[in-house]
Amino acid sequence: MDAELADAFETAWRLLGRGAADRRSPMHTPVVASVDTQGRPQARVMVLRAADRAAAHLRFHTDARSPKCAALDGAAVAVTLYHPGEAIQLRLAGTARVVTEGADIDRIWTTATEFARRAYMVEAAPGTPLPGPGSGLPAGIDGRKPELAELVPARANFAIVRVEVTAIDWLHLAQAGHRRALFTHVGGDWTGGWRVP
Ligand SMILES: Cc1cc2nc3c(=O)[nH]c(=O)nc-3n(C[C@H](O)[C@H](O)[C@H](O)COP(=O)(O)O)c2cc1C
Question: N or C: which end of the chain has fewer CB within 10 A?
Fold first, then answer.
């Protein structure tokens, strides 16, 4: 990689790292796209929880009962992010893995706030029809912090989606001339090249 290309690659991972760590970053809420079990495209906003450059992984959290979980495990995904301040779009390709068990997941669960964990207390799977507007939470939970004991059964509904990143399409918009680069991750090594924007 030439120096400018290496810099673009560094910037991509720096922005991803900040996107995960800083809830005010525009890269905190990427769009994650996949294909559902009927082959239809589905795209949704998800909070970026971690970006691990060394492992080339991204981490998202979701409800294990959600329809996307069944579709995502082992499937190809596209993750799209845009940073207006930097005028950089990142389009990541990868493979998703849904993980529900293990010491890592237990630790992530116990360190999440009670309010964050409350989302996993919904009584039926996300997407289940309701007779009227509602949160789906058990009666008496809306509007308050749940007790730790109330959260225990919700742990079974918590899943992480780990995306193994295989490619990053980096696009920088600039009046002087746009720049685009494609980075691919093969056999543990990243290679990159410039592309027509
Ligand atoms: C700002 C924002 C952040 C969201 N973060 C998540 C998230 O981290 N995990 C998640 O499962 N859904 C998240 N959602 C909800 C999803 O976009 C989507 O509505 C929901 O997961 C149902 O998607 P599905 O039908 O593809 O399963 C978020 C929505 C918004 C607007």
Answer: C
